[in-house]
Amino acid sequence: MAVLAVVLLVVAVVCAATMDHPMQDLLGTGLRSTLALLCGVAGLCLLAAALLWPTADRPRSLALMSGIVSLVCLAATVLIWVCVSVDDELHSIPGTAVSTSAQAEKVLVQQGLAAGRTAIPTGVMIETMQYTSSNNVKLTGYIWQRLPKDHAEDPEIDLPNAVEGGVGEEIYRDPVPGGREVVGWKLNTTVREYFDYSNYPLDRQVVWLTMWPQHSAVNTLVPDFAAYPPWQTHDGYGVYHDLVSGDWQQQFSTFSVGHGTAHTNYGRPGLAVDNKIPQLTYSIGVTRAFLSPLLNRLVPLAVIAMLVFASLFVVTKDSDRRSLSGFSTWAVIGFCGSMMLVVSVQHSSLRSDTGSGGVVYAEYFYFILYLVIGLVALNAVEHTAEKRIRLVDWRGNTAARLLYWPVTCLLLFAVTAVVFVVTSTT
Which of these, 354, 210, 201, 206, lies nearest to 286 by C-alpha position? Predict the structure, then answer.
């Protein structure tokens, strides 16, 4: 057993050593990340078993083994949470991310959006960002363009995903070299997009400000990189440095160039039905400050889990102890039912808060507790049944007490690994 434990730990160390940044790469290096995590957990548990050598006639060693397995699984779960929080890679960026004017021009040429169109440099500065619903975000700030001097006063911008507001009043108009002038407007809009909350409360979102030219047949929008320092994705350019965005923390900001297709010519004979519309998108990547919502969800569930665990100590087949503890099958079932009701109310609150159509990560906490509470109720029923299971009755319900936390923590680790490690590498 000790040899197998050492082999597994060596495999875990080798897999981790081949990653450039183990903390950041754990979620995206395929088989290596999965092997490193699983072999590490299995190796530590086997090493503890080899050192303690737990047997039925040594209950203290069994208790230590139970605690070690629980702590290892819990530590591995927390490690995954930390890795998720430090992951700052670009995700869900529409089109092609660009950081220079030359890159933007190259992408437009490759997609056939440059020929016959005038490039209009466009920049944004976001001052506030507020989630008004699970799918709506309110953005305020400034937006500007470098336009020909004879251009109309209206901005050459359309915001296709805006549901409220838009480009507001003109703030300034300054001449610039090249026969153009830079015109700035106030931005006050609410944009709507689909946000994936399946990893809540460890989710990351990308807020898009999608921009189309008003006259897409003759114009195209490009980032005004001349208005910023040399663009670095993680330096927060285009966003006010003291931006207050509630429970969210900014990870990156970037411009991307691509095209949209409306699948209509809007009744204009000169346009094709499948005409490509040049699209400029300013994206802000944010991650949830997960500690607060995680504690809000986990602390009540941890208290319930401890109370359910304590109920295992009143389950006994000893008639004298039953009279002292007041144990009865119906009493335990009633207690489990009340705990199940409390958990279900909190579960319903979570579903309402996220507004997700699928199962979010935090819901697995509740599923695990449903299962554990159900098993505790079955454990009480077994102690009053005519046919007994020797393992369950061993040393007056000791087996259930020893298995309670390892099973709970192992399920939590397994779910976390599948959601963030296995699924993210497929």
Answer: 206
180-192/204-211 β-pairing: unpaired
3-state secondary structure at position 223: strand
Nearest-angstrom CA–CA distance, 342 and 201 = 20
First-to-last CA distance in the chain? 32
Taking the CA atoms of 310, 315, 318 and 319 in sequence, report the sign of the dihedral they define.
Answer: positive
Tens digits of per-residue pLDDT, 253-281? 999 999 887 777 667 666 666 678 899 99
pTM for the model: 0.79
Mean pLDDT, all residues of the chain: 84
Q: How far apart are CA 160 and CA 307, in angstroms?
A: 52
Task: State residue 387's pLDDT score.
Answer: 60
Paired tokens of 192: 């709507």
Question: Secondary structure of 124-186 in the HEC alphabet?
Answer: EEEEEEEECCCCEEEEEEEEEEEEECCCCCCCCCECCCEEEEEEEEEEEEEEECCCEEEEEEE
The domain ranges of the chain are: 1-86, 96-288, 290-426
Which class would CATH give 96-288? mainly beta
- Distances, alpha carbon 286 to alpha carbons 188, 190, 207, in Å: 20, 17, 8
- Answer yes or no: are the C-beta atoms of 171 and 153 closer than 8 Å: no
- Angle of CA points 29, 30, 35, to nearest 5°: 100
Beta bridge partners of 142: 125, 186
Residues 6+ apart with CB under 8 A from 204: 87, 91, 251, 285, 286, 287, 288
